[in-house]
Amino acid sequence: MSHPYRTGWRPSPPVTLRWPWVALLVALSYLTVAIVAVEGCGPKPWPVTAQAVIASHAHALRAADVLLARAIANDPLTGAAAEAKYGPAVSALRIARAALLEAEHAADVGRAVDSAASRCAAYRALAGALDHVRPLTATLAAAGVQSPPEVAASATALGEAAGGLADACESGGAR
Amino acid sequence: MISPQVLELIRLGVETLGPLFLKLVVAIFDGEDPVDVLARERVADILPETLLSEQVLNAKVVAGELALADLRGRHGEARRRDA
Asked: Which of A25, B14, B53, B82 has the largest CB neighbor count within 10 A?
């Protein structure tokens, strides 16, 4: 009788996911949900749309935060080594959160005082918040984890599109 | 057969995307506009002041410092014993 461990069965290797890839995938999924929801439900007052986009980004960041926390917890590194590896990524998340809060504040001001200037300021703040995705992906890559170039490219395109919207608003208001 | 990678991805997707999707689906069934539901959410409620990753990293840093202090303590004790 053959030994049970010599029957050709092999233990499956541990599941390893490149967590930033998943985090960014989740982030883009949230963004897709937001875009579909915003586009599919007809025109809204712009502060409502802006707040919905901001909230969907916050959800995406929360997902990234959960996955980053899991990656840190699963990593055997501790102390200064862990801080050196993951500190910049955590810091980038904090900066992105602060940018979203700023954008939210701008949308609140725009909701209270619906003027062209407040609308432009809110667009600019939103563009700034979206721009933080770029350093975030770069920081994640610097932590030694790969992310597909398409994600960085789409984040750049999104940031530029938001910046263009803010530029158009400001030039329209100046006329 | 579904690979473990895909299963893990689905699990993570449900864990992270699930609550938002559930909220939007409930809103749609209640006849509410999902955009209005999203627009009512505040960043501070979604993302806590101290991020989860920050808490875990702080715990890891403290654990590393404690381990280092423990190692130094043992090393000093061994040296004293040898002397």
From this structure: B53
